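User: I'm new to structure prediction. If I give you an amino acid sequence, what do you actually give back? Let's try with this one:
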Amino acid sequence: MKNKFYIESYGCAMNFSDSEIVASILNKEGYKLSKNPEEANLILINTCSIRDKAEQTIRKRLKLFNKYKKNTNELKIGILGCMAERLKEKLLIEEKIVDLVVGPDSYRDLPNLIDNLKDDKKVINTILSLEETYEDIIPLRINSNGINAYISIMRGCDNMCSFCVVPFTRGRERSRNPYTIVEEAKDLFRKGYREITLLGQNVDSYKWSKKINNKKKLEKNLELKDDIISFANLLEMIAKINSDLRIRFSTSHPKDITKDVLEVIKSNENICNYIHLPAQSGNSRILKMMNRTYDRDWYLNKVMDIKNVLGNECGISSDFIAGFCSETEKEHQDTLSLMDKVIYDYSYMFYYSERPGTLAQRKYDDDITLETKKRRLSEIINKQKEHSLKRNNLSVGNRYKVLIEGNSRKSNDYLKGRTSENKVVIFPKRKNNNNLYVDVEIKTCNSATLFGEIA
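Assistant: Good question. You get back a string of structure tokens that encode the predicted 3D arrangement of the chain. For your 455 residues, that looks like this:
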């Protein structure tokens, strides 16, 4: 066997991070990563189940990869992640489009499962864990630019939003040992990485505890209550590694982000001045049906807390779902008016896609027509474009510290980077510039990008 594997990832940043863990596990077993699926004898797709469209995209890819089997008897195809966890044996027995099905908590078992892929045998492991965090595995950075990297700090979700499959596909919430997180961040910095993004379905609920010889202090005299390390504590520990290491995090649930976290961001320049704070809807009745555990006013007060502590320049983004079950036209207008009150820098916007097994699927009728969903989504998207341009215009004439991430996609004569507020900046290259951080003066903008020159 040639022992080459190819892996594709779909969905959230956590899936891309998980693929790096999978690549590390397989690399230790002698498998080499291939960028060409036609060269591999093992093809893996790390999947997303958050919307039906994502699953249909993955099915199309699987059909394509199955055509490669006509040219070789060696090729095996596996599916990983949330779609694997949701559909389990159906992919093997009914649809017969894969040889291997592995859930997000079973990646350590991959070498054993692959060994069992003999004589056309189909294998599966979708057992969810209450403990697995992969904290001892050093990810193999795939398609890395050498500047940005993900670090997974926790897994699973306990929130049970009525529209969401994540608690069923990724299991219960558990936090990773903070010292392994800090060591991974230090290692990345030594290797030249200058920005890390801490990942979790709900990072603000991160909590890790262990009694350490009855002491109330941990490294660098960090004061802790009851030997518990909170997300705010973790941010501070990582920020102290080096002031040139930028820190981002995603995603925050509005109910859990605390003023302690905001104060840590304010007091550490290298923790980015940006928060992704999904609203999902601007109407309190719909939010209750979604089981978001907050109402419209509570959410707006949380946004006010962020702006009071971090200033109006703090980047804030959101998620919105158009056309949730029974949403009226007036309730849709409440979402648009919420956007007008906050003025988000950008948002991730979708129309409601009913997911099997969720509370919403079991309890509510998906009674909004597709035409209405698409129209409402279009209105949300247009509103966001208007607001993104308004927010970006506020940056014109100002200078920002920008981390260079590489060449612009459209021209090698230009560089691309991001501000602390998570705004993309394009600017001309300057000869003899070897710095990763540069000060850029913003000259113009559109709704998606800032354009400037090195100051």
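You can read the tokens as a compact description of the fold. Here is one thing that stands out. The longest strand covers residues 399-407.
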